[in-house]
Design brief:
About 2% of the residues have low confidence. This protein has a domain of 101 residues. The strands form 5 sheets. Strands 7-6-16-17-18-15-19 form a 7-stranded mixed sheet. A 5-stranded parallel sheet has the order 9-2-1-13-20, with helices on one face. The protein has a 4-stranded mixed sheet with strand order 12-11-10-14. The chain is built from 13 helices and 20 strands. Strand 10 and strand 11 form a beta hairpin. The longest helix has 30 residues. With 454 residues, the chain is α/β, with parallel strands linked by helices. The structure holds flavin-adenine dinucleotide. Flavin-adenine dinucleotide binds next to helix 1, strand 19, helix 12 and helix 13.
Length: 454
């Protein structure tokens, strides 16, 4: 019998890839016409751009080595800086004291320094129970308010006091007091750790990782345009998978990367009502991606530019060509901006022409482009981009986990699936660990069979 994997985003494909490598038979079921989920690359004429600014984080040596094997020469090392646009000025990202002092003015810098020292003296690490508290303790009020609090609220759509500290996604790590002080004393050239400047990236766009994973699984084992509509169970085992317009299948195991609200709704018989309400109450931030196609060679040298100001509707701009020159023609470029929002807000239904016009005007105001550079634009509306990790979320997740654990052949993976702020290397690690677990289970099954037949 086959293991069915629900969803062909990075998590589902990673599970399929590692399971195929240990000789496990898998079939991946994906609702959309393409695989890659939230890590896809769009094509528009000669331009290629991703579902938001993606990079491969080199944080797990074993997983990086696996990806290097998988991608071969197609994985390149990119060296590109990033910046923050703040009050009409550009600052280096991650923030460096030398650059901050130069850009925000000496008065504000002195105030920021005093705040910073005060915050470090007054609070202990125990106070970092929400994102705002963590940011204030680490940087003091002046810097946190200018660069972190407003930005995070724009990104996540809830007050920073209601967010779990982990929404910083490790971005605050390289900005410790020690590194700030070190830089201040030694100058910027001696920067201790460059968080944002060098990273791996596939030549043809981030979606190439999903392409390669899918090719390794075997495209005949991936069913696109196949939406799972029901998971019939007997209380302990998923017995039947039903898909829109397809025959149903009897799975050996089911690996789900679907959002938990979707997974719970698929179960038949249905789970208790209050669990469905918990799952449906967990918020995801949606994303409007606006790509501008430009008749100029480059907008800037940056991998990304961050916009913390609340007056600007987007959080980040990225220029695909600065990751790989193969993503735009030599004399043209493309700028992609990310507008986080909830799908029930008016901006979600704003028409494309207005969105493209507004983005163009904002980028002109920031001195990045001229209106007549724009030769076209494209808008993508993407649901469930970021799981919003609000205070109290872990208790809710524990409750859902306790319920789902009763299904002995169900495994939950993924960023949307587990409602965690994880990245592609984490999802590959999950897939690898899952394959190891299945190998152990298979060995146990065999031993049992031998014992019983012996
Ligand atoms: C703007 C942005 C920037 C990012 N930058 C980075 C980065 O730089 N580096 C990094 O590592 N990560 C980055 N990420 C995160 C990364 O994109 C996600 O971690 C990853 O795509 C999540 O993969 P997943 O498989 O868990 O979920 P998804 O990609 O959401 O995949 C779930 C899949 O399930 C399918 N599905 C849903 N319902 C059904 C159904 N009923 N039947 C069948 N299929 C179904 C969906 O169509 C989808 O393909 C970024 C994310 C965003 C939004």
């Amino acid at each position: 019998m086959i293991t069915y994997i629900l969803g062909a985003g990075p998590a589902g494909l990673a599970a399929g890839y590692y399971m195929t490598r240990i000789g496990c038979a898998v079939t991946v079921l994906e609702a959309e016409r393409e695989y890659g989920g939230f890590a896809r690359t769009f094509c528009h004429g000669p331009f290629r751009y991703d579902t938001g600014a993606h990079r491969f984080h080199d944080k797990d040596a074993e997983i990086t080595a696996d990806i290097q094997d998988l991608m071969g020469n197609e994985l390149i090392k990119v060296h590109a800086p990033s910046q923050i646009y703040w009050n009409g000025r550009y600052l280096d990202f991650p923030l460096s004291p030398v650059n901050v002092a130069r850009r925000i003015g000496i008065g504000t810098f002195v105030r920021a320094g005093a705040d910073f020292a005060f915050a470090r003296l007054r609070r202990s690490k125990r106070d970092e129970w929400n994102f705002a508290a963590k940011a204030y303790r680490k940087y003091g009020k002046t810097i946190a308010d200018a660069f972190l609090i407003g930005y995070s609220e724009k990104l996540w759509g809830v007050p920073a006091q209601k967010l779990m500290p982990e929404v910083s996604g490790g971005r605050l790590k390289g900005l410790s007091a020690r590194t700030m002080l070190y830089e201040l004393l030694r100058g910027k050239q001696e920067k201790t750790e460059h968080l944002d400047g060098s990273f791996y990236y596939p030549r043809q766009g981030y979606g190439q990782i999903a392409e390669r994973l899918a090719a390794s699984i075997g495209k005949e084992n991936i069913r696109l345009s196949t939406r799972v509509t029901k998971l019939r169970h007997d209380g302990t085992t998923i017995q039947l998978i039903e898909c829109e317009g397809h025959e149903s299948a009897r799975p050996k195991r089911v690996v789900s990367s679907l959002p938990q609200s979707v997974l719970l709704r698929l179960l038949d018989p249905a789970p208790p009502r209050q669990l469905i309400e918990i799952a449906e109450g967990m918020k995801f931030r949606d994303l409007i991606l606006t790509a501008l196609f430009l008749n100029r060679t480059q907008v800037s040298r940056n991998a990304s530019i961050y916009f913390p100001s609340e007056d600007v509707p987007f959080t980040r701009l990225y220029e695909p060509k600065n990751r790989s020159i193969e993503l735009a023609p030599p004399s043209q470029t493309c700028a992609v901006v990310e507008i986080p929002c909830f799908a029930d807000q008016p901006i979600w239904v704003e028409n494309d022409t207005d969105l493209i016009g507004n983005v163009t005007r904002e980028l002109e105001r920031a001195g990045l482009i001229r209106g007549d550079d724009v030769i076209g634009g494209k808008v993508h509306r993407l649901r469930r981009a970021y799981p919003v990790l609000e205070i109290g979320i872990h208790e809710k997740l524990d409750e859902l986990r306790r319920y789902l654990q009763r299904f002995v052949n169900l495994y939950v993976v993924g960023r949307t699936g587990r409602f965690e702020y994880t990245h592609v290397h984490d999802l590959l690690r999950q897939g690898k660990e899952l394959a190891k677990l299945m190998q152990t289970e298979a060995a146990t099954d065999l031993t049992l069979q031998r014992v019983h037949s012996g």
